[in-house]
Design brief:
Blueprint lengths: L16 E7 L4 E9 L5 E10 L1 H4 L7 H23 L8 E7 L3 H18 L3 E5 H7 L11 E6 L4 E8 L2 E7 L5 H11 L6 H9 L24 H11 L5 H33 L6 E5 L6 H14 L2 E3 L3 H4 L4 H12 L18 H6 L13
Parallel strand pairs: 1-4, 4-5, 6-9, 9-10
Antiparallel strand pairs: 1-2, 2-3, 6-7, 7-8
Helix pairs in contact: 2-3, 4-11, 5-6, 5-7, 5-8, 6-8, 7-8, 8-9
Bound molecules: 5'-O-[(R)-(carboxyoxy)(hydroxy)phosphoryl]adenosine and zinc ion (ZN).
Zinc ion binds next to α4.
């Protein structure tokens, strides 16, 4: 399918669509205004992200109650700033989109309730957006990527390979059976005393390390599917972490951990590409990586090589759109709005909401783990 023609479902008098999006599912309070042209091209008019990292740093991870309270305090100002920076008045906004899950329920409720109030007060349609669908469309914020495409979604809560066929039409090809890749980065960094958030800290430490000094286990060796597992790596790294005495040893372990995670992501993505290419016929082969872990340079480099080898175009959103942001939520909302897919004011906030509900129900193993339902 080419870039969808949004002039169909929408009123030509109001197209292009301008949507205010809100994101509050984890530790970022974010708001953005995105404009979706009838030809399917997106333009980010503003994207404001208020990070709560300082509120949670002392605890080495996100504390749900603190996050919910911080969202309540920040949301008004962040939304107001997004409108001001986009230089659009409420009268020029066509809809309000908010993450309705999956995520930390207290935070999701803050953003969704705010969006419901604004939609009601301004007489605008509401779009309840799946956070994962936001990540799925994030590459479309800056590039006119056509459907279908293959997506590796790798963040703190998710690690899955998806066949994205259209708006809300997603088939899951593989997912983690335990931790998400970002969660593995975070937990291993914590066991190595590298600070929070762990992914960027571990990447920095790895820069001066020798990845061959420590041998780490490979996951799911006998299998030929696209599933992931990081718990064995986490346990092995934690054991070695207890023996570290020098900065060089720490850097070497960080490099070995990063290489092991990259190797697994690249191997499973390669399998997914091989299978996808077989049934894709003449469609352009596009591989997109999204989610916070896509900020990692070694991950990008490994995937870039794997895609080049198989004739896939490789796309990774700019860093600001890899980690949680509201522009991706606004765009997912605008795409749904253009097709008339709006939500009622009774739309629930959902802590768990797999993108591909059919696959998740058929194989509930994939919904295990700490934040597993997200994965
Ligand atoms: O997408 P995101 O902002 O939030 C979730 O929905 O989870 O992703 C955050 C995750 C964290 O686990 C963080 O450690 C990881 O992305 N991350 C990284 C890097 N930057 C962020 N992991 C590895 N290397 C990085 N440079
Ligand atoms: Zn996310």
């Amino acid at each position: 399918m080419p870039i969808p023609d949004y002039s169909r479902g929408s009123d030509p008098a109001t197209a292009p669509l301008r949507v205010l999006g809100l994101e509050t599912s984890c530790d970022e309070t974010a708001a953005a205004v995105v404009r979706l042209a009838p030809d399917g091209r997106a333009e980010v008019l503003s994207s404001v992200v208020h990070s709560q990292i300082d509120d949670h740093a002392a605890y080495g991870g996100v504390v749900p109650e603190i996050a919910a309270r911080s969202h309540v305090e920040a949301i008004d100002g962040v939304a107001r700033r997004a409108l001001a920076e986009a230089d659009v008045a409420w009268a020029a906004i066509d809809g309000v989109a908010a993450t309705a899950g999956p995520g930390l329920i207290g935070g999701v409720m803050v953003g969704l309730s705010w969006a419901k109030g604004a939609a009601l007060a301004r007489g605008l349609p509401l779009v309840a957006v799946n956070h994962l669908e936001g990540h799925a469309v994030s590459a479309r914020l800056t590039e006119p990527v056509a459907y279908p495409f293959l997506l590796l979604l790798v963040s703190g809560g998710h690690c899955q390979l998806l066949d994205v066929r259209g708006v809300g039409e997603v088939r899951r090809l593989g997912a983690t059976i335990d931790d998400a890749a970002g969660e593995a980065f975070d937990k291993i960094a914590k066991s190595m005393g590298l600070g929070y958030p762990g992914g960027p800290a571990l990447e920095r430490a790895a820069a001066t390390g020798d990845a061959t000094r420590y041998e780490l286990p490979r996951a799911l060796l006998g299998r030929k599917d696209c599933d992931f597992s990081f718990s064995g790596l986490k346990t092995a790294a934690a054991r070695i972490a207890q023996t570290l005495t020098t900065d060089q040893e720490r850097a070497d372990l960080a490099a070995a951990v990063q290489a092991a995670i990259v190797r697994q992501l690249v191997e499973r993505s390669g399998r997914a590409m091989d299978g996808w290419a077989e049934d894709a016929g003449g469609a352009e082969r596009v591989f997109v990586v999204a989610g916070g872990v896509a900020a990692n340079k070694a991950v990008r480099a490994g995937l870039e090589q794997a895609t080049a080898k198989r004739g896939f175009r490789f796309l990774a959103p700019p860093l600001a759109y890899c980690t949680d942001n509201a522009a991706m939520i606004a765009l997912a909302g605008a795409e749904r709005l253009a097709l008339g897919l709006t939500s009622g004011l009774d739309a629930p906030a959902r802590p768990r909401w797999p993108l591909d509900e059919a696959a998740a129900l058929a194989d509930p193993m994939h919904v295990a783990g700490r934040k597993g339902a997200k994965a």
